[in-house]
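Q: Okay, next protein. This is DUF2200 domain-containing protein from Mucilaginibacter ginsenosidivorax. I've checked the sequence twice, so it should be correct. Can you predict the 3D structure?
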Amino acid sequence: MNNTEVHNERIAKMTFASVYPLYLAKVEKKGRTKEELHQVITWLTGFDNEKLKDLIEKKVTFETFFQVASLNPNAYLITGVICGYRVEEIENSLMQQVRYLDKLVDELAKGRKMEKILRNS
């Protein structure tokens, strides 16, 4: 297994519950709200607040999190670089989905308008 495969496996096995507080802290530190974070997660995954809370409580892995998600059909419009990777060029679909979420959280924290984050025209 090469380093990329090891890295992908490690992220796939991480729990969403372990990363969610980091997402929340990042956006709140920049003056955004938990509700806005949930709006972004809901747009990408289709999860409502109750389902999101349930997945956090069950400590599901990112792999499971995205297996049960209904990815937004406009997710492909998320482009750019996050964590050193150009999201539209990531070949592993789970890694691409994780990086989509990272990118949306980053845009929210940077103060981008919600209409732009949610890829609305």
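A: Here is a summary of the prediction. Residues 5 and 92 are 9 Å apart (CA to CA). The chain has one domain: 3-115.
Q: Noted. On to the next one.
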